[in-house]
Amino acid sequence: MEINLHNKQFKSLSNSENGQVSDATVFHYRQEGAIIWAQYAGGAILKGFLLGTKINNDLHFNYQHLNDKMVLMTGKCDTKIEKNETGKILLQETWVWTSGDFSQGHSTLIEIS
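RE: above sequence
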């Protein structure tokens, strides 16, 4: 079943140590057909944006945010959309920084509304 992300909000369940997203970061997703975008902020992130595509239940996007040290960070991410046992949407993300140290990581986001 294809899952629509329009007007869904998410927060972090887990993140790699080299990531900047925390459980205080909230993502607000929008979707128009295969186009997805989101705004996010909270914790160490002052303001962030992502833009990409959704094909079936896979997301591919680029992201950028300004952190609390006033450093602009950029990256790209591939995400698998799943549902947990309670029906909440999970985003299983594999990402890589395209700035800073160019390291990689994994994070899991969960739907909060």
